[in-house]
């Protein structure tokens, strides 16, 4: 049996998504820029997907730009914004717990002379709003804060942050990395008052290599890829048509089932946390069971057991989880998120992330926790010897 509990790293595409990708490869393989029928039929499908994505996010379809995923959407939003607005100011605010696709950009911008403020987070994984208020100045051009943290699942108070920005410096723009929130929280970008937001298909049962950026029509950005002028001149390059077809299906399924899926995830999360708490000792759960945390991410430290050893032990049972953030854990051996939350080294070293999909079952979770218990006990015994 395969028990896949690493859904924050990526998800399995649904059958309908796969069918849509195959249809594009086998039948609708025209170039959407071509003037003939083969191109026009594909262009129409792309328009449909754009409409669906704009419906899911609550914006106008002209405010959606397809990208190769979350990383590129973050790059386009941030680099593209800085490129277009560099004369307005030199200061940018972000948080210490952003995904590497955002943090690496700011490290780079710092080298080119930008002044970057990295907001602290508290021990529960929430950014300091007081520090945000104090840091905003007339020189601030951009604030970028993620919606759901990919390691611990904390949901940042995006609307409240937007209101603080509007009050202190209405000229500053607000970018949100929404890669882990789409389909897990019901929201609308207009209501959140954000200026740009990134999503990625493979995090919600769509294909890899496709994502989108919502960019408010009043926010000026410059393209970072130049060429044929596709995507309203903001992202040149022949469109990833199979990816867009697959994304369209994934978004359709998301719109149809979002509320039920979130309910399922909340039930599964409650069941998992309850089992962990009753079956395991010497643990610290960083992802609480309340609505300040996303329903699909559970970060738990199994004190005394190195997370990588646990990950590989579980892998032998067909149970797949992650240590820290799967997307960045190859680079560094520790979690910058748990570090920012001021967790002890022993906690950071033993933290695993279990991340759920609405397709997971209680049986799978039961099996995974039993296997975790078995490995925790045997590994702790070896360590104590
Ligand atoms: C919060 C967050 N942002 C961005 C990304 C990058 O997305 P992609 O894999 O589509 O480039 C990820 C991937 O893990 C993520 O979790």
Task: Label this structure with key terms.
385 residues; Aspartate Aminotransferase, domain 1; 13 strands; single chain; 12 helices; four-stranded antiparallel beta sheet; alpha/beta; Aspartate Aminotransferase, domain 2; globular
Quick overview of this protein structure:
Its cofactor is pyridoxal 5'-phosphate. The chain contains twelve helices and 13 strands. With 385 residues, it is an alpha/beta fold.
Protein architecture, described:
- The chain is an alpha/beta fold and 385 residues long.
- The protein is 43% helix and 14% strand.
- It has helices at residues 15-26, 37-57, 70-85, 100-111, 129-135, 158-168, 189-192, 241-279, 307-316, 336-340, 345-349, 362-384; strands at 3-4, 64-67, 91-95, 115-119, 140-144, 173-177, 196-200, 211-215, 283-285, 297-302, 319-320, 322-323, 351-355.
- The strands form 3 sheets. Strands 2-8-7-6-5-3-4 form a 7-stranded mixed sheet, sandwiched between helices. Strands 9-10-13-12 form a 4-stranded antiparallel sheet. Strands 1-11 form a two-stranded parallel ribbon.
- Helix 6 links the parallel strand 5 and strand 6 (173-177).
- Mean pLDDT is 96; it is low at 325-329.
- Pyridoxal-5'-phosphate is lined by residues 69-71, 99, 101, 146, 150, 177, 179-180, 200, 211, 327.
């Amino acid at each position: 049996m395969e028990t896949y509990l690493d859904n924050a790293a990526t998800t399995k595409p649904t059958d309908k998504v796969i069918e849509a990708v195959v249809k594009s490869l086998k039948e609708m393989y025209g170039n959407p820029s071509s003037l003939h029928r083969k191109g026009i039929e594909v262009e129409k499908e792309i328009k449909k997907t754009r409409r669906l994505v704009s419906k899911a996010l609550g914006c106008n379809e002209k405010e959606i730009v397809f990208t190769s995923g979350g990383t590129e959407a973050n790059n386009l939003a941030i680099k593209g914004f800085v490129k277009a607005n560099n004369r307005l100011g030199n200061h940018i605010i972000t948080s210490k717990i952003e995904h590497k696709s955002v943090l690496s950009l700011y490290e780079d911008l710092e080298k080119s002379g930008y002044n970057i403020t990295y907001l602290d987070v508290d021990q529960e994984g929430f950014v300091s709003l007081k520090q945000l208020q104090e840091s905003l100045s007339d020189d601030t051009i951009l604030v970028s804060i993620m919606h759901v943290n990919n390691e611990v699942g904390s949901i940042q108070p995006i609307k409240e942050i937007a209101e603080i920005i509007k009050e202190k410096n209405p000229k500053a723009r607000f970018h949100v990395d929404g890669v882990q929130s789409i389909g897990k929280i019901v929201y609308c970008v207009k209501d959140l008052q954000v200026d740009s937001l990134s999503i990625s298909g493979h995090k919600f049962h769509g294909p890899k290599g496709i994502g989108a950026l919502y960019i408010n029509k009043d926010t000026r950005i410059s393209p970072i890829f130049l060429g044929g002028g596709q995507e309203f001149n903001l992202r040149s390059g022949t469109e990833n048509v199979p990816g867009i077809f697959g994304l369209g299906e994934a978004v359709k399924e998301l719109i149809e089932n979002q509320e039920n899926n979130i309910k399922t995830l909340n039930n599964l999360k409650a069941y998992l946390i309850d089992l962990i708490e009753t079956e395991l000792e010497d643990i610290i759960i960083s992802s609480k069971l309340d609505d300040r945390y996303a329903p699909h991410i559970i970060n738990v430290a199994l004190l005394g057991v190195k997370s990588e050893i646990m990950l590989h032990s579980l892998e032998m049972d067909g149970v797949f989880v992650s240590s820290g953030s799967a997307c960045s854990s190859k680079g560094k051996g520790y979690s910058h998120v748990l570090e920012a939350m001021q967790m002890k080294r022993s906690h950071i070293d033993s933290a695993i992330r279990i991340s759920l999909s609405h397709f997971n079952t209680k049986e799978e979770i039961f099996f995974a926790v039993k296997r975790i218990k078995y490995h925790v006990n045997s590994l702790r015994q070896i360590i104590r010897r």
